[in-house]
Amino acid sequence: MSLSLLSAALVALLLDAILGEPRRAHPLVVVGRWAACLEQRGNRHGGSVVAGGIALLCVILPVMLMVVLLLAWLPGWASWCFQVLGLWSVIGGRSLIEHGRAVEQPLVAGDLHTAREQVARMVSRDCEALDEEGVAKAATESLLENGADAVFASLFWFLVAGLPGAVLHRLVNTLDAMWGYRTSRFERFGKVAARLDDLLGWLPARLTAFSYALCGHFSGAMACWRRQAPSCDSPNAGPVMAAGAGALQVRLGGATRYHGEWKDKPVLGCGQQASAHSIDAAIRLVRRSMGLWVVAMLAVALVAGP
């Protein structure tokens, strides 16, 4: 891990904290439109694993080639600036927190209708009939899981492999979010994206879970991680959400409706029922964990020296 990458990561995190995500012409929006076009053309009649893999390569390869060529072509200072701007565009810490606040505030005010509308922007579950606890659960789970996906995993791969690593992770994670559903339409087509996302997210998810434990109720987080994570379908979301729920001392999971069908998700965490307070606590947990990573990066920079 070079000092150049460390400094670029710290500046990118500062930009995200001050400005949030780019408001216009976000690169992931452009990628999402291209991916949606490929899916519509290649995923007819249920699609196939091969078609999904080819579509994934058609999205990833041009972007990765452009990133690698620009890094090789640009002079040193410009390459550093490009890495800063690139990482800033793929992490979403402030945006995630803003989405959480947009659910928490109407929930505190007793405006359940607005809270449902806002949480529907964060999750894929059916939100129309959620009660206060259901809205709070959905927002809290999304904050914990997307903290791993939208912040810590991309930051991890940036520190390991520079901007190409962060971009690769974010592209795969975006395609998994679009195609990785276990439905008749996406079961085969999205399998390559889902498995690759599991692979790239395996270690960052566990580092995130441990960060949540260090920044919250440690013994509760570790106990829930050990006992509850194996019962989750996702090998990465399980540790993150179990440890996060344990760190917050809140109960998450349970029966949830997706696309008109009920899914009995395992109960995660312990302690109190989810509420607007749980959303605020999850935001503070994600922020403290980001601070922990910043402190760790500064410590590495000091030890490494000039």
Automatic annotation (TrEMBL):
GO terms for biological process: cobalamin biosynthetic process. PANTHER family: COBALAMIN BIOSYNTHESIS PROTEIN CBIB. One of its GO terms (cellular component) is plasma membrane. It is found in: Cell membrane. Belongs to the CobD/CbiB family. It comes from the Bacteria. The chain crosses the membrane at residues 49-73, 150-172, 285-304. This is Cobalamin biosynthesis protein CobD. It comes from Alcanivorax nanhaiticus. The keyword Transmembrane applies. HAMAP family: CobD_CbiB. It is a multi-pass membrane protein. Converts cobyric acid to cobinamide by the addition of aminopropanol on the F carboxylic group. GO terms for molecular function: ABC-type vitamin B12 transporter activity; threonine-phosphate decarboxylase activity. Pathway: Cofactor biosynthesis; adenosylcobalamin biosynthesis. Keywords: Cell membrane, Cobalamin biosynthesis, Membrane, Transmembrane, Transmembrane helix. InterPro entries: Cobalamin_biosynth_CobD/CbiB.
